[in-house]
Amino acid sequence: MNATAAEVARPAAPEAAPVLLGHHTDGSITDRITGIVLQRGRGAGFWLAIGISGAATVLFVVAIAWLFARGVGIWGINQPVSWGFAITNYVWWVAIGNSGTFISAFLLLLRQRWRTSINRFAEAMTIFAVAMAGLMPILHLGRPWFFYWLAPYPNAMNVWPQWRSPLVWDFFAIATYLIVSILFWYMGLLPDLATMRDAARRRGRQLAYGLAALGWRGDARHWHHYRSAYLLLGGVAAPLVISVHSVVAFEFSFANLPGWHSAIYAPYFIAGALFSGLAMALTITIPLRAIFGLHDFITARHLANIAKLMLACGWIITYTYVIELFTAFYGGDRYEIHTALARMGGDYAWIYWTVVACNVLVPQLIWWRAVRASPLALFAISILVNVGMWLERMMIILTGLYQDFLPSSWGNFTPTFWDWAILAGSLGAFALLFILFIRFVPALSMTELRRLNRDITQAGS
Amino acid sequence: MSGYGLLAEFDSPDALLAAVRAAREAGYRQLEAFAPFAVEGLDEALQLPRSRVPLLALLGGIAGAGGGFFLQWYSAVVDFPINSGGRPLDSWPAFVPAMVELGILGASLAAFAGMLLLNGLPRLRHPVFEAAPFARASRDRFFLCIRGADPRFDAQRTHAWLQQRAALSITVLPAEAP
Question: DSSP states of A267-305 as a string?
Fold first, then answer.
């Protein structure tokens, strides 16, 4: 409004924006966040979103039912490409989940103040993404009703899981990850659920939030143990994220396949997970911020910071792309070289080059201040990165499998309608869960915002 | 006087901190403080002992990792020895990933359950919930409760003392329901 000429000429650095805008009090923060759940009328937009995501969820259920009835033959997979969309979806979803914990746990341990407004989103994103991810390998099993054979339990068959298999490690990794993510999320929610209980006016809501809050009183002793436990959960969640995605990478790198059998896979996958998850965080945060008017709490600084982290991860990804090629040629193994060339020039070359465009070139736009300051531009970039990262997993799986050692066993993969239905359906189910989360649960951490607000106003006075 | 205590309301964390410190100086020991967020310095003012949550989490982690390793070792070496590519039965490096995950799971569950246990939660009914002003304890108000069980507690004198601390409201809390 009263900006100087210089500020008009050059957009202000979004990183310089405060982490909290406007003059808030504990009360106004509480009203604003509880209002999203308790007061806001359900507009046409809400029902439209429910309708679309609900329809996609129905498609998901139908696709799963048809899959259970007919088997994995309804998909495009066969020999030699026996891993198709399901495993691509799995790696993509679990990566998105990983980044949610990264945002929440790592930034907590690093005492980053800008974490406060986005951690609950990120944790919810983790839980729903891991739920989608966890379904995929089960759907991919030829006999999904036996999935519990992965769990170690004394059984009438007198057998135990094969502990030397990354698939069994993965069962433990994903199960632990889902449980710890839910604990971390629920624990962060406890004081806010107490706020909801006290702010709710209708009996049913008071009862539901009251039960969920477990009788939280905000006692100093509560906070004392709570802070200790929360920090500990953050502390164990951080190495958990790394281990989970390393195990996902082992599922590839333990196989003796050219293009997969590589020591770089674990760090490669972890960087890719952060990259795609940060993109998904932007994809989710930007529209929600606009729809629910959260500009005071999620400022230009948050978006710019996520974008910068994404750019940094993009460079690690770029590095691994280069090193993969280098290793293939430097190693001199003819199969490795063939796979590298088939990636760049084979039947699926378009996937490789789209991946390079989306994951290497597009993020470079973030170097420009105007791009970082524009939610629309960041949203577009985040969508492209999401697409790029999904295609990257598709590329790894396809090009690792479609031309292996024996030319007589080469074969291509063409997705069927049911492949696409599972992908679209999982996106819909994820969106539906997220909308319901915003509808029923305080979407931002009120306790942490109150604290942040106090810190800022005290530092200012 | 056998009530739960007196609940005084304050409008800022600083006022609550000052009141807690003054109460300790005045000799009160059975104090409870309530805030809508973790107030810095409140633990020290109340002289709370160190939280035992980290110890519980450590034990949980050790139990998870140890149990996880034992499970794998027992099943792979004793109960179901199977030759897998000529590897030794006790191929412990392969047991590490699942052991790490189970260790983290144990630590997390212990931290969460320990937090609830030490806080006496879930507990849906509590005398402070009977006080009308307490609805704002989860919003923007700060409360100090001096327990009726405190040896220095006296219904009139403690009430007067709290009034001098500029409390916004003072509520007499009834005794805990049996």
Answer: HHHHHHHHHHHHHHHHHHHHHHHHHTT-TTTS-HHHHHH
Domain, as residue range, for A187: 20-141+160-460
Sequence-separated (6 or more) residues with CB below 8 Å from residue B122: A214, A215, B116
Closest CA to A450 of A97, A32, A135, A11: A32
Predicted structure pTM score:
0.88
Q: How far apart are CA A307 and CA A373, in angstroms?
A: 10
Domain extents in chain B: 5-50+129-173, 53-119
Q: List the single range of A7-21, B5-19, B111-125 with lowest mean pLDDT.
A: A7-21
Contact A273, A242 (CB under 8 A): no
φ and ψ of A255, to 5 deg: -80, 140
Residues A381, A75: Cα–Cα separation, whole Å: 31
Please determine, for residue A172, whether its predicted confidence score (pLDDT) is greater than 80. yes
Q: How far is residue A213's CA from residue A422's CA, in Å, rounded to a whole number?
A: 36
Q: Do A218 and B104 touch (CB under 8 A)?
A: no
- The Cα A19–Cα A298 span in angstroms is 7
Residue A73 lies in a domain: yes
pLDDT in tens, A417-460: 999 999 999 999 999 998 888 888 888 888 888 888 877 777 65
Dist. CA A398–CA A355, nearest whole Å: 13
B138·A160 Cβ contact <8 A: no
Residue A153 lies in a domain: no
Least confident of A11-20, A204-213, A392-401, B157-166: A11-20
CATH number of A199's domain: 1.20.1630.10
Sign of the Cα torsion A296, A300, A303, A309 reads negative
Q: Where are the alpha helices (DSSP H) in chain B?
A: 13-25, 42-46, 53-73, 96-119, 155-164
Using alpha carbons, list the distances in angstroms from residue A357 to A279, A350, A387: 15, 10, 11
**Mean pLDDT calculated for residue range A194-198:** 87
Q: Is A220 on the interface with B (CB under 8 A)?
A: yes
Nearest CB neighbour to A168, from listed B98, B122, B139: B98
User: Which residues numbered 342-381 in A keep a CB inside 8 Å of some CB on B?
Assistant: none
Q: Does A3 have pLDDT greater than 80?
A: no
Q: How many domains does chain A have?
A: 1
